C-alpha cells in the first residue's frame, strides 16, 4: 500500500459491498492524517499484527504483535462511524519482540468494530465482531 506523503484533513473511510459504491454500509467522520502514514499489515517491516482472535468476540479478544524495535503503541476500538470507543490501550515504550495483547470488550454492544493499532510509522486496522451471549 502506498504511503500518504502529505498532511490532509479530508480523510474518511467508507465500507462498501463488493466494490460497488452504491452499496455503502457506512462511513467514518472526516479525520486528519499528518505526515507519512501507511495502513498496512507490515509497517516498514517494523511491526506485524495478527488478526483478532477469537473473532467473533464475546468479552475478550487478543492480538499478537511483533515489533523489531521498541515503539510507542496506541490501540483503539472504533465503530463504523469512526468514533473511538472507551476501550483504548496506550503503551509508551513497548519492547521489541513478540507480545500478546488482550482487549476487554465486555462493555461494547453487539456489532462490528475496527481495532486501530497506531505506531509512529503508521497504523494497522483489524476488524472484529462483538457478540452478546445470553445465558
Describe the structure.
The chain is mainly beta. It has a domain at 39-130: Immunoglobulin-like, CATH 2.60.40. Helices cover 0% and strands 56% of the residues. It has no helices and 11 strands. The protein has strands at residues 8-11, 14-17, 20-27, 31-33, 47-49, 60-67, 71-78, 84-94, 97-104, 111-119, 122-130. The strands form 4 sheets. Strands 8-7-10-11 form a 4-stranded antiparallel β-sheet, with no helix packed on it. A hairpin with a 2-residue loop joins β2 (14-17) and β3 (20-27). It is globular. The chain starts with 7 loop residues before the first strand and ends in a 5-residue tail after the last strand. 15% of the residues are buried. Residues 1-5 and 36-40 have low confidence and may be disordered.
